[in-house]
Amino acid sequence: MTSTSSGERYRGELRYEGKAKRVYATADPHEYIVEFKDDATAFNGVKKAQIGGKGQINNAITAHLFPQLEAAGIPTHFIEQLSSTEQRVRAVTIIPVEVIVRNVAAGSFSKRLGIEEGTPLNHPVVEYCYKSDALGDPLINSDTALSLGWATEGQLLRIRELALKVRAFLVPYFEQRGVRLIDFKLEFGTTPDGAVILADEISPDTCRFWDSQTNEKLDKDRFRRDLGGVEDAYAEMLRRVTAPVDG
Ligand code: C5P
User: Fold this and answer.
1) Residue list, ligand 1 pocket, CB within 6 Å
2) Which pLDDT score, from 0 to 100, does residue 176 have?
3) Which of 6, 84, 185, 233 has the fewest CB atoms within 10 Å, counting from its CB?
4) Residue limits of the SAICAR synthetase/ADE2 N-terminal domain (predicted)?
5) Atom 19, ligand 1: residue with shortest CA distance
6) Whether the model pTM is above 0.90
């Protein structure tokens, strides 16, 4: 894969740098450029490494999925892919509430509640976390978000509705591609006119993907848990996400 950067000529000042992405202003105040990095962190930045090709793969997977979510009635910030690692997006103010949707027990849910990983949940679980690197994105509830002014009641209702709509699209999408969507994390932003839209990314960094046949992990848990084969798992997910499906 080549690393072109046709977005460079549009890039203005760096507005935000997160663990996996940089966000740049552009000449148009309504648009940003997002650059996906190869940097990987886990355990709130304690574990750091580079995953070769990750920026390109996460950019490509997100650029493939977001227009389909948009077509399914979920408004997103995505405008177009600019280069192998960059995309043009609508400028939003990120709501500092990360939304996790769980279909199968895993990760922090299993640890917190003593439920064996892989236990199917008979109802989708929507969780909220406060987006704060300094605090390690702690679990909150909607009252906390309301009382601290991070989101309004209307925004929280909309976020939940959209998160479940994303789930309804993604679960069968991945199922058709031999992948179980165990859980995933979403971020939302507000536009100047007050609409809540899907932002950030959907990728092996932000989702748990298990192979439908073998339950092999095809996501960032391979890095978090030192399972090896990280790059191969990301490349395999890109292949499955973009491959045409029969029927
Ligand atoms: O670690 P935990 O089980 O809470 O993660 C649930 C899901 O949210 C996983 O798919 C994980 O990749 C994602 N996540 C994330 N960013 C975080 C925390 C979790 O993308 N800061």
Assistant:
1) 100, 106-109, 137, 183-185, 206-208, 220
2) 98
3) 6
4) 15-240
5) 185
6) yes
